[in-house]
Specification:
Two copies of one chain form a homodimer. By secondary structure, chain A is mainly alpha-helical. In chain A, about 75% of the residues lie in helices and about 0% in strands. The first copy, chain A, has a single domain, classed as Up-down Bundle (Na+/H+ antiporter like fold). Chain A contains 16 helices and no strands. The longest helix of chain A is centred in the first third of the chain and has 32 residues. The radius of gyration of chain A is 20 Å and the shape is globular. Chains A and B meet through α1, α3, α9 and α11 of A and α1, α3, α9 and α11 of B.
């Protein structure tokens, strides 16, 4: 078989395995990402060895992650933050700081040097609101105050996670604790993210008609794909993760009047390319390491730390809502899902994380996503859904629900 | 810059160059594919040298070609053939045989050995109906009898071209004129194409509901992408071109009730991936060879042969329509466009075609696509469009018109 046929065959195997994994997951009422990663574990070099991940598959996987983060950015609107106000800001910020500190501290105590420990801490941080949004939608609870706060806080959480990721990657590349250098690294990351998140979105709000025909002959999708790739390359160029640029491109596109049609046009691209990211991610998880009781213990400990730190920080930050509501908010913020997984993949790729700690973080991310939905359902038991609760906030969450990702 | 950033940068450069090229083409009222290939010439290693085409870019280009041929197949309906009947069958068949013979004969006389000459002949064959369809649409002439015959004949033309490509690739791989071997090669190619084109489409007609929820939990797009990749790999596995499998997968999907939603969902994937095929194709054209008068002469001669053989065969086959109409049909079948270009790319990749003859064929394909539209407009001058002429046949040609490809 020649090289290009072998590459096509690998694309086929991964795509089919991802669909089978996602389907089994959904029948078990688990998020489809769990099945896709599991499919990757099974067909990867540590088990059936059906695929070899070379440069081509890495590029497909990276493009999948870039488009996924672009679509996350596309759902991240600065206006949504204003609506839910202060409580969401507290929840989002607290839910980043405590897990980062707990994760980083655990890693440092477990023997990782500072730059690696910070990287591991960053993988503890990002909430994946998509899984929670799907559960809330199924329960008809999307219009309740807890749901609005969770989804608003997830926006802040995403922005802070990107900022943090920018900081730890730059810091790790620099590899020193030179205070002045650190300051510049932080300044660069913060500057890039804030400039694009605040100024970029503002500019787009004022010149949204630029994306529209007949002023512009290209389609909005084409322009946004070019912008997404350009900011991804720019982010990588200044030493940040490429996905940070993609996320910010999505945030900027979210301010255009073409947002809804973009979301729709993006679906086929996500359906085709995102499975490559999750399957390739799963293919690097060595499940045989779970034969060591030590590793199993570490996975359990890390998962407990990740769950508790998120619940404690987010519940405390939303105390003003009352006990039950604040716990709902805390539990709703637990799922880590794709962003944590992307951070771990970056760490493995850059050589910061060993295969063992990579596998631990992936498993932790999966477990948090598996635990949260039943817990949320239990917490909502006995509460009648508010009228119109299935409509979603602005209707745009319907998309999260049907996409199968996030 | 690390490897993955460099790969992303190449993806960005190609995508942006393709958009610029397509835009300039459209302003010059040329097909956008001309601009995309020209963009490839300019940024490729023979000129600005902005991109290096490695395995990753080849895979993107191949995937673009596969999806493009899948979409061509999706517009190829066996029922359409019945509607336009015998004349279209004569036009399609004649328009394949004469150009193949003329092209092959020229190549053989020019000194190419038999297997290479047949390959070159195959690149003379396939009409790209998309360019003609767009011109007919703009003129409001889509419902006239000439238009229906051109578009019906293009379907037969595509099927025969795939059959022929299957034959010449297998023959070339075999590399001998052993009559028994040749017979089996032909049988295999014909068998694969006919089995899928006739039996596959029939099965899909009877079980179209398989693609629909709730019997099937996966989306039609997902199933079709998997089927497209699977048949592409299968075709490559038995020694045919991967695009033949993709085309047949498209023909089968065309018989499902989900055809129109598939066409729509395919658009973003085509918009993203197809430019990689045309730009990579263009990047391999060495325009500096046009400095040789010899090569310029060859391009002109080959283009004249390609244009005349198509016009003569197709006009003769549609004589029953009257002189003016038969010439319109002949001219409408002239543009070669993407299928000829794909055949040439396969030849270059397989080492059958030298860089010179590859460049000649690409330029011929481009020139036929540039010549036909103004000639068609001139031929229709003075004919008033029939009422409702802009509706298109079945409405599905509207898609060809807006896609920018074909």
């Amino acid at each position: 078989m020649d090289h290009s046929t072998a590459a096509l065959l690998a694309l086929l195997i991964i795509f089919v395995a991802a669909q089978i994994g996602a389907e089994i997951s959904q029948r078990l009422t688990l998020p489809s990402v769990v099945g896709e990663i599991a499919a990757g574990c099974i067909i990867g070099p540590f088990a059936l060895n059906l695929i070899q991940v070379g440069h081509e598959l890495e590029l497909f996987a990276e493009l999948g992650a870039i488009l996924l983060l672009f679509s996350v950015g596309l759902e991240t609107r600065l206006d949504d933050l204003k609506k839910v106000g202060k409580v969401a800001a507290y929840v989002g910020t607290g839910g980043v700081i405590l897990p980062f500190l707990v994760g980083g501290l655990w890693a440092h105590l477990a023997g990782f040097e500072l730059s690696k420990a910070l990287f591991i801490g960053a993988a503890f941080v990002a909430t994946s609101a998509g899984i929670t949004a799907r559960v809330l939608h199924e329960l008809g609870m999307l219009s309740r105050i807890e749901s609005r706060i969770i989804l608003g806080a997830a926006v802040i959480d995403d922005i802070l996670a990107m900022l943090l990721l920018g900081f730890v990657t730059s810091f790790q590349a620099q590899g020193s604790v030179d205070v002045l250098g650190l300051f510049f690294v932080l300044l660069q990351a913060v500057g890039f993210v804030l400039l694009l998140a605040l100024v970029g979105t503002r500019l787009m709000q004022r010149s949204s008609q630029l994306l529209e025909a007949p002023i512009n002959p290209l389609s909005p999708l084409t322009l946004c794909l070019a912008g997404c790739l350009a900011l991804a390359v720019a982010a990588a160029y200044i030493g940040l993760a490429a996905i940070i640029g993609a996320f910010l491109a999505g945030m900027i596109a979210a301010e255009s009047t073409q947002r809804h049609s973009l979301e729709k046009q993006l679906q086929p691209l996500l359906a085709f390319l995102v499975p490559y990211f999750f399957v390739v991610t799963g293919s690097k998880v060595d499940l045989s390491q779970l034969a060591s009781l030590n590793v199993v213990g570490t996975v359990i400990l890390v998962t407990i730390l990740a769950v508790l730190s998120k619940i404690v920080a987010c519940s405390l930050a939303s105390m003003s809502l009352g006990r039950r509501s604040s716990i709902i908010v805390g539990v709703g913020m637990v799922p880590r899902g794709e962003v944590g997984i992307i951070v771990a993949s970056l760490g493995l790729q850059a050589g910061v994380l060993s295969n063992t700690i990579y596998s631990v973080i992936i498993l932790m991310s999966l477990l948090t996503s598996v635990i949260a939905p039943p817990a949320l359902k239990a917490l909502f038991a006995g509460i009648t859904p508010p009228p119109g609760g299935e409509q979603g906030v602005d209707g745009h969450l319907m998309k999260v629900d049907t996409s199968g990702y996030g």
